[in-house]
Amino acid sequence: MGGYSDRAGPSTGVHDRLTARVLLLKAGQESVAFISCDLRSFVGDRVRERAMKELGIGHVLVSSSHTHSGPLSWENRTSRWYTETEDKLVAAIAEAKKNLVPATVAVGRGEIYLGHNRRRIGPEGRATMFWRNAEQAPTSPVDPTVTVLRVDDAKGKTLAVVVHYACHPSVLGPDNREISADYPGAMSREVERQFPDAIGMFWQGAAGDINPYRDKEATPGGFAEAERMGRALAAEAVRVARKASPVTGDLHASTEVVDLKHRWDLAATIHAGLTAITLGTQVALIALPGEPFVNHQIALTAKSEVPYTLLLGYSSGAGGEWIGYLPTIDAAVTGGYGAGWNTTVEVGAGEALVDRGLVRMYQLLGRLSTDAR
User: Fold this and answer.
1) Backbone dihedral region for residue 125 (phi beyond 0: left; psi -120 to 50: alpha; all else: beta)
2) Which domain holds residue 310?
3) What percent of the chain has pLDDT over 70?
4) What is the number of domains present in the chain?
């Protein structure tokens, strides 16, 4: 299993199944297959390449919830289960392609506080880790925003409800050795109960420094807490979905691989895949293959003139590699887990990728020329 280095051993069974859900959007000549996976992380190069070659799909974005109660993932990408998972994802895209129907998209926003910033900055300007906050003491920065996309068919039947939120799926701790999707799985199941003909998808945001209040809840109580948290998020998502506003306009997407320096080995290069997607002029998303800190999400929203701008972490759609934690420059200065250590990208990489994503986004919207003149 992945997520905790101090687990006593491998999984002992399955508490709730891990799933992948596919939403395929096509408009004009552009098509994007969005895949949400109940996995810790996933590098989807083979899925993307096969879907493009065999199915004619323009872009594939594989987003992981980052559950800490699933298998080791990208580290084991030569294993049989990883290859089988890739094959299943391609088959799911093929199924989605067969089921394409005329549809509309709507978007809305809500908020809910389900997590805290796990970094405390002391008077000396250094970070100490604050993993669990059962008392729900206020912390900063945190982004409580819940953004929801609702996809309906021509008769108004809801086909998909996509929920974007930033919080680690680490309600279940290292004592748990049963496979589980943690709170995002509970959220998806509850959304699908409320919309019986739809899939409930979860897009993880910039959760690099955000933990659930009841982080690492001891089992068996952890399962009940993951269910409670997931249902709370689902309730807000369903409320937003029912009053979402229509999205109109074209679908555009672009990808690139950005070369970054290694923070500790100046001779090494890290290849970061970046995906930018726009839906009309109302929705834009930037997807990165690592764990961005939440201030990157807040900064992206502040800089963007697109009303609904989302930062997706833990997402693979452009090639490159898993790049790990993306701390802010300020966090790198104050140190701590994922900022002063257990991170490999150069300081400032997160800010650079967000800005590069903004450039790509505005190019897709036709507001920045790619003509060098």
Assistant:
1) left
2) 251-364
3) 99
4) 1
